[in-house]
Design brief:
385 residues, alpha/beta, Spore Coat Polysaccharide Biosynthesis Protein SpsA, Chain A, 2 domains, eight-stranded mixed β-sheet, 14% strand
Length: 385
């Protein structure tokens, strides 16, 4: 009886987090009309770009920022090199010498992304801060579409919608693209249905300068920290689905795993910093945080409970035996997928299973990395395409 209760409860939590909550949120969002006042003014913006060894993309990134339809006399670009030892500094220095609105600083010692963002924010002069990554390329009208939301004094943050280049289809890039697209739709729906989204897209978001917090130096998921800090102070975080940025994502499983471990570690840092109920026990913020984030982070543990109780019960019922067998086959799919991939054969459901198991393996590794203690906030950029 105890095993059956644990199995039903665990399976219900997984179904709620991955199916019921997203459907409920999107249904509620579909009933909300989006209202927005067009902006006639152009507040000054400071684009903060922390980089480390980004010689492959820094030129394209800088050109994309300079090509913005937003008035260039209202844009300040502040680039901080975290002890880069490739051609990043040389390329950035060339742009800074030609464009007076580009400010370039360098740290001689690796400090980490959070420390560099704090440093860049401290010298920025714009009314709004744009936080962006080197491999994220905004469309020319991206900034215009985001900034107009700040006529609403209750909105403290707005992020863009990332899309993946069509050329990226190798490895698990297609599966990552589908998952990221689903997550962005859910975030957009959360803002409409519940009043705010929880976790801004860290590759490109805009925040009021006075609301940007000092990020703990060892914090790995700085975007989640900033988002939770802002909404806990009573401001809204939203997504502008028509503000498009292009992001290359690592297609290799190993690269993607390293990226996911870093994100997972930062997620647990934020969980134990803000607690289970960052907005109060019965607030919409806490409801979204628990439903969308916390349950996802603990999926490996919940899945383990489902698997073990299924094994325990498999000798008592044909139904439980079939359930256990399905899970065993599912766990073996990545091995079969690997062998088929070596033969040049790709079966999409097998790739999806590989990606799901990889993500949860990364969550588990991130949890133990957090428990072991995060020694610094230094990050290594993923392999650029």
């Amino acid at each position: 009886m105890a095993a059956e209760i644990i199995l039903i409860a665990s399976a219900s939590l997984l179904a709620y987090s991955y199916i019921i909550y997203p459907l409920l949120t999107m249904m509620l969002a579909s009933t909300v009309e989006k209202q927005m006042t067009e902006s006639a003014s152009f507040p000054s913006v400071s684009i903060l770009l922390p980089v480390h060894n980004e010689e492959k993309v820094i030129r394209t990134k800088t050109e994309s920022l300079l090509a913005s339809q937003y008035p260039l006399d209202k844009i300040e670009i502040v680039i901080g090199s975290d002890a880069s030892d490739d051609a990043t500094d040389k390329i950035t220095g060339e742009y800074a010498s030609k464009h007076p609105n580009i400010i370039f600083i360098r740290s001689e010692k690796r400090e980490g992304k959070a420390a560099m963002l704090n440093r860049l924010a401290s010298i920025a002069k714009g009314e709004l801060l744009v936080i962006t990554d080197a491999n994220v390329m905004p469309a020319p009208d991206c900034l215009m579409k985001i900034v107009r939301h700040f006529n609403d004094k209750n909105i403290g943050l707005c992020d863009a919608r990332p899309v993946t280049p069509e050329t990226m289809s190798s490895g698990i890039a297609s599966q990552e693209k589908l998952y990221s697209s689903f997550e962005m739709k859910l975030k957009n729906a959360e803002a409409k249905a519940w009043g705010t989204s929880i976790n801004p897209y860290g590759g490109f978001y805009v925040i009021r300068r006075q609301l940007f917090p000092v990020i703990p130096q060892k914090m790995l998921a700085d975007d989640l920290y900033v988002g939770l800090n802002l909404i806990c102070r009573g401001y809204k975080a939203i997504n502008e689905e028509h503000a498009i940025v292009t992001e290359d994502i690592p297609s290799g499983i190993r690269e993607q795993y390293k990226r996911r471990v870093r994100i997972a570690t930062g997620s647990f840092q934020n969980l134990f910093h803000y607690g289970l109920f960052p907005g109060g026990l019965f607030s919409k913020i806490s409801f979204c945080f628990f439903s969308h984030k916390v349950l996802r982070w603990f999926t490996p543990m919940i899945f383990f409970l489902v698997f073990m109780t299924s094994i325990i019960l498999s000798s008592h019922s044909l139904l439980y035996f079939a359930l256990a067998l399905v899970q065993v086959i599912f766990l073996l799919l990545p091995m079969l997928d690997f062998l088929l991939h070596k033969m040049g054969i790709t079966i999409v459901p097998f790739r999806a299973a590989t990606q799901f198991i990889m993500m949860n393996a990364a969550l588990t590794a991130g949890f133990f990395r957090y428990l072991n203690g995060v020694k610094d906030g230094i990050w290594e950029p993923t392999k650029r395409v």
